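Protocol check, entry for the methods section draft. Step 1: assemble the input record (protein sequence plus ligand SMILES). Step 2: submit for complex structure prediction. Step 3: store the structure tokens unaltered in the notebook. Ligand used here: fe (ii) ion. Step 1 record:
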Amino acid sequence: MTVELEIPVIDLAGSEGAEREKLCKEIARACEQWGFFQVINHGVDESLRKRVLDVYTDFFYLPPEEKMKFVVPEGSMEGWMHPTLTEPSGFLKNFVGPHTPEFLNNTWLPDLPQHRQQKPTSPSSMQATIGEFVMAAKGVHEKLLKMMAEGLGLESDAFLKHFQNPGVKIRCNFYPFEAKGTNVGANLAHSDASATTLLCDTVSGLEVMRDETWVQVQSRPNGFIVNVGDQLEILSNGRFKSILHRGGRNESKQRLSLACFYFPSSDAVMAPIEELLLDGQLPKYRKVRFGDYFQGFVAKGIERKKQIENMKIRD
Ligand SMILES: O=C(O)CCC(=O)C(=O)O
Ligand SMILES: [Fe+2]
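Step 3, stored output:
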């Protein structure tokens, strides 16, 4: 059964003024109760958002042979993936099945030489536009991480100090509209390996799990849907929840959803932060180097919560 309930909507317009404390508490409560919320007035220019969605749309409209130049190599998650045209090998079967959307996944920060070949060069403004968006979105992720800590009564940098040299990835999911098709696209239910994720949704199609029920998210125009990823569940010792969610096509329109993930660096060690263990609470998750976590996440496939469940040492 799927129900329509609204995930909390938080207006960041007053976040640098007198309302900040109240907003921080609302954000922390949303992270504890839902693992999801939406932000409006987040400061990212509407025109930049439109430009970035436009370059991705243009990319997906390129002929397959053009997109094939940026195809995901075996053993990697970087690049273009299509459920049938890119003929997934054994490794990639974890990620792509007959109902998976076509998607483009790239790491934009850090900019490593081994990832450059999968970064699209067409349309020609693509990389510059995405670069601009990545810096703006990074600012929103970092602002929210500060507000989340303040909302728990902690120092502003209690979470953020664990993100020296953070990473930013974008996965853009394209669900074409085909009037006759059923199952043109659906993402498997999964939790994100990130610390936080910002989702730009063009038309609704995301569902989140709440009390064993799928809840449809009505995306706000120009808003970002924000969710807690596995790294923040670990850092917060389970107070913030990295929730199962799945995306699907829209019944009547083409849908493009752009997920922007904020990550620790590969060498960062993730573990429940000391500030949340001061009152004698025991850590619920083992320490893990993020690079190792991510490797396990990729190997297991983005299905359900397999990787974070492996890190759990007690409830
Ligand atoms: O919006 C969607 O279709 C799902 C996006 C998502 O959860 C992801 O890319 O991680
Ligand atoms: Fe996701």
